[in-house]
Amino acid sequence: MLRCLPRQLSTVACSLLLCGCLLGPDYVRPRTPEPPAWHEPLGPSLTNAPPEKAQLATWWKVLDDPILSELVDRAVAENLDIRAAKARLRQVRARRDIARAGLYPTIRAELLGLDALWNIDVFGGQRRAIQGAVGDMGASREDLRDVLVTIVAGTVQSYVDLRSYETRLLIADKNLDAQTQTLQIASWRAQAGLTTVLDVEQARANVEQTRAQIPTLRAGLEDSRNRLSVLVAVPPGTLAETLAVSKPIPSAPKEVAVGVPADALAQRPDVRRAERQLAAETARVGSVRAEGYPSFSIFGSIGILPSKFSNYQFQAVGGVNIIQVLFDGGAIRAKIAAQQGIREEALDRYQSTVLRALEDVEDGIVHYSEEQNRRESLAAAADSAERAADLLRERYASGLVDFLLVLDASRSLYQLQDQLAMSQGQVVSNLIRLYRSLGGGWAPQKKT
């Protein structure tokens, strides 16, 4: 055992640290294919202005619905998937702190003495491990943000589904009333001998066909209510009072800022998470490489021993251990190769995530713009169909047109009004998809 004074041990430690290095590779953020603008032309309601961070973080407020805002706030605060993601982040943060603790000496107290051990990170293996743990923590933080984006979008989507089903039920009820009136007219004309029973049966079939749509719509309405309850972490049925009053489908804003591709890539948590995972795996290559180099540790102890000159005397003992792997059957080389493969996989995954993110926004842009065009056409068609149905119903009552024209007009009106309601909901659904593709739904917080 090598004996030396504490000052000498400190000198040895400082010399080792000064001579130390960090085995590579050093992490460099890879370049990404960022086109200067979106390939899909922006519709009249979209602009390439950079989205405001604050607005993007609370994008659902552009729908101007207090009940929706309340539900989103509850989901962000109570959703169990979000809480689980926060717990995972705390775990990863603790593992980072454990890795950092490896840079410091370990001191233990024993009866009549103290023992100390300090593993000197000469070749940077521990520091690379810390970098890897920091990368893991960054990836976990982005995972939490990704869960926030998903839960917020899911909550808004379920709410829009709810209001869409309510609107479609109102349309079904309204058409059912109109078709019932037509059935009564056909019955009166048949009783008066002005038409045949065939008109009555056709009218009754039309009424029952519309009535048959209502149970499916009510089931969808309840599904949306139950889904919202789960998203805000309460049992199904708990939100009955909050959602008791029917409301129209929220309207999309007149203008949405989508920025440029670089804005979306910088904001999306999935891209940010993949980049942090790549940084972590790059650092671990250096950590594994350090296993093939000598390891240095300083040890020491201070004890109290009996003395013939006095009751007790202090004794300090210390030394330096140097360990070098001479033969391991190629295990370290294999570990390095394996870690390099993991890093290459992380790089490919990052690049793939970037491409999918760009695709996601491009698809969101075209679907949002085209559905708005479809909604406008359906609105015009529904208006014309309603006027035609009213005119034909009046003329039929006067015996001026055949009942088949009335029947076709009634069916066409209901189908167009129902399609219009679905399109109105789909416009907002596509807006949700667009904001989600832009990474909306989270706000930066202080890093730890």
Describe the protein's architecture and organization:
By secondary structure, the chain is of the alpha+beta class. The protein has a single domain, classed as Outer membrane efflux proteins (OEP), CATH 1.20.1600. The protein has helices spanning 6-19, 53-57, 66-78, 80-101, 125-191, 197-211, 213-231, 261-267, 269-289, 331-397, 403-437, and strands at residues 46-47, 106-110, 113-120, 256-257, 295-306, 312-323. It has a four-stranded antiparallel β-sheet, covered by helices on one side. The protein has a two-stranded parallel ribbon with strand order 1-4. Helix 5 packs antiparallel against helix 6 (197-211), helix 5 runs antiparallel to helix 11 (403-437) and helix 10 packs antiparallel against helix 11. It starts with 5 loop residues before the first helix and ends in an 11-residue tail after the last helix. Residues 1-6 have low confidence and may be disordered.
Concise structural overview:
The protein has 448 residues and is an alpha+beta fold.
Q: What are the key terms here?
A:
448 residues, alpha+beta, Outer membrane efflux proteins (OEP), two-stranded parallel sheet, 11 helices
Question: How are the elements arranged and paired?
Answer:
Elements: H1 6-19, E1 46-47, H2 53-57, H3 66-78, H4 80-101, E2 106-110, E3 113-120, H5 125-191, H6 197-211, H7 213-231, E4 256-257, H8 261-267, H9 269-289, E5 295-306, E6 312-323, H10 331-397, H11 403-437
Parallel strand pairs: 1-4
Antiparallel strand pairs: 2-3, 3-5, 5-6
Helix pairs in contact: 3-5, 4-5, 5-6, 5-7, 5-9, 5-11, 6-11, 9-10, 10-11
